[in-house]
Structure formats: structure tokens, C-alpha cells
Amino acid sequence: MIPAQRRPRFARWFARQAEARLRRSFGRVRLLGLSHLREASAAGPVLVVSNHASWWDPLVALWLTNRVLALEAYALMDAANLRRLPFFGPAGAVGVDLADPRDGARVLRHLAGLLRAPGQLVWVFPQGREQPADAPLQFEAGAAAVARTAGAAVRVLPIALRYEHGHEARPWAWISVGAPLPAVERRAGLAATADLQAEAVAAELTRLASAIRDLADANVAHRSAAGGSAAARDGTGPAPAAAAEDLLVTRHDEGGLASWVLARWTGRPAES
């Protein structure tokens, strides 16, 4: 295990660099249910369970929790990757040795210990590896064990992530935050709890799919009515039924150090 070594100033700086990368790569970042996350984090510690759709996911999580909400946020990461990319340590990453079965229990206790007060958050991807957003969700029991160990004061929130090409040249990042899950009795099995968490995230993925369809339908109708106006092209026309907040809209932003650091992590060349 590589324990938490978060440095608040570094985490805030790195979140700004993540935002610069997001601005260069996505047309917009849209989010449904932000109020759930704001209210839960103000009321107590939060454990986020999320699907793992892309290598973008950790950046989105880092940006949302540190830059948008200014939380004391941590995330679970493969220890081998964390050793290769040590700058994620001061940004809030905790490393788990996937090759050592005993490491899971140590990490479980460590993560639970990071969830003691309002404003503290741990983000976990219980799938364990990247899978397409439309793939059936199967969660490992680790997040369920963290929730049980941390106790009833912890709010467990399902979050869905999806990246979608639409009517603009750049894809949009979509985020949906669900309401806190009901507290599960300690005698409930971890596998059953993990299944409940997966079902909750699947419901948020369905909500995203509906919002994306609504937006596409609204754009088609508005474009037809307006003759291809600017509002129809940029999504500022009539809002779809499942309206989402625009947390970020693309502008030109030179990457500088952000491009170098993030290109090294992802193995992809910095964008020009």
C-alpha cells in the first residue's frame, strides 16, 4: 500500500492543470445532480462509487472534487501506476498493490480513516479497470467494505461518467450524480452491497443516456426551426427536459506544463 500523501496546495494546482487539459480536449463538461454532491459533502464524509469508462476519469474526478467543490479528496489507484507516476500522490492518490491480496485489507482501513469529517471524500472505481460506459456493471466488493468500515456517517454517492461525440467537433464529458444510497445494515453481504452500488451507478448512466438523447432531439428540432442558427449549433437553444449544468465550456488554453505532465501520464502526445 502507498498511503495518502495529499498536499492541499499541490492538489489545487494540479486540478487547475487538469482543467486546462479538459478545456483543450472537450467541447463542454455537463453535469446532472451537482446538488447531491454539494449537500452530501457539507453534511458529512462522502464515498463516491463510479464507473470507469476512460483514462479521463481520474482527471475529471480530480477537477470536480478539488477545483469545482474544493474538497479534501482522495482516490484509489494501482500502486504500480502510482510508483510510475508519483505526482498523483500529493494530488490525493492512494496506492493499492493488486498483486498482494493482503494489501486490500490495509487499504480498506486506510481509506475508511480518511472519511471522518464533512468535506472529506474518497473516489473509488469498483470495476477495477476501464470498461465501455454501456457495458454491464460488475463491481468488486472493495467499496462496499470501505463503506461498512467507515460507518453510517459516510454518504455513499453513485456517479456516472460518459464521453460522447455529438454535434460539435470535440466530444462532451457528461457526469451524473445520484442521491446518497440508503445505509446498508452491517449484516448485509458485501457482494449484495456491491450489487446495489452497481445498480445505482447504472441508473445514473441511464439518466445520462436520456439527457444525451434529449439534447440531440432538441438540437435537431431547433436547427430545423431556426435554419441552423448559432444557438442550434452550440447547444444554447431550448433546453432538453433533462437539463444539465455546464461546468466548463471550451476556450483556447495553452497547455504548457499541464500538457507535458498529462501527456506523460496518458502516453498521448500533447495537443497543439
Write up this protein.
- There is one protein chain.
- By secondary structure, this protein is of the alpha/beta class.
- It has one domain: Glycerol-3-phosphate (1)-acyltransferase (3-Layer(aba) Sandwich).
- Helices cover 43% and strands 17% of the residues.
- It is built from 9 helices and 8 strands.
- It has an 8-stranded mixed beta sheet, sandwiched between helices.
- A hairpin with a 7-residue loop joins strand 6 and strand 7.
- Helix 1 (8-25) crosses helix 3, helix 1 (8-25) crosses helix 9 (257-266) and helix 5 (103-113) crosses helix 6 (142-150).
- The longest helix is centred in the last third of the chain and has 37 residues, at 190-226.
- It is globular and about 60 Å long.
- Mean pLDDT is 84; it is low at 237-242.
